[in-house]
Design a protein that fits this description.
This protein is α+β, with helices and mostly antiparallel strands and about 130 residues long. It contains three helices and six strands. It has a six-stranded mixed sheet with strand order 1-2-3-4-6-5, with helices on both faces. Helix 2 (about 65-80) links the parallel strand 3 and strand 4. The longest helix has 16 residues, at about 65-80. The protein is globular and about 45 Å long.
Amino acid sequence: LEMHDGEHRRREAFTYTVLSPDRSTCLGCVYITPLSRHAPANPGMDPGPREAVVTFWVVSTPAGEGIAVALLESLRRWLAEDWEFESASFAVRRELVEQVRLFHESGLADHRRIFVAARDSEFSLYH
């Protein structure tokens, strides 16, 4: 948490906790990072200064039912209206089939793959 707080304060990356309406339960988390953070592990990548990568997770309990759809809709609106990104792509590992399905059903298209060194995994970016 200290690492995320430091990134947030330095405006390097942003992490948000998704809470239930009564703020008593954590339902998930949202991470917003600059695409440029991933350039060293992706030769030839030349991201613009205002390109972002967004990842999120939600609980897989009854408290989290339906939250992924609502969260994605809210994030898309929030990123478009309140952030000054040239582009914001949602990232997911291909094996997370439910989230991949959510992105497709929401009209997002897979447009790029990147390697995320911190996760030692390839991610698909949806836009």
